[in-house]
Amino acid sequence: MRTDTWTVRGMSCGHCAHTIEAALAKLGALAKVDLEAGTVSVLYDSSVIGSEQIVAAIESHGYNVVL
Ligand SMILES: [Cu+2]
Fold this sequence. Notes:
This protein has 67 residues and is of the alpha+beta class. The protein has a single domain, classed as Alpha-Beta Plaits, CATH 3.30.70. It has helices spanning 14-26, 51-59; strands at 2-9, 30-34, 39-44, 64-66. The radius of gyration is 11 Å and the shape is globular.
């Protein structure tokens, strides 16, 4: 398992946090959103999913991942 943290632009409320957490749960990843910091920490199995899939899932919901 591995944890990565990304800065994500466009998250403004609990709904955003829930959207991102639910999208990543579908990939089998455990996401924790910190709205104040504007970050998403994701615990995932890097042998199963890649970080680029996580980034794509977040961006598919209209948020912008700072890489
Ligand atoms: Cu929101």
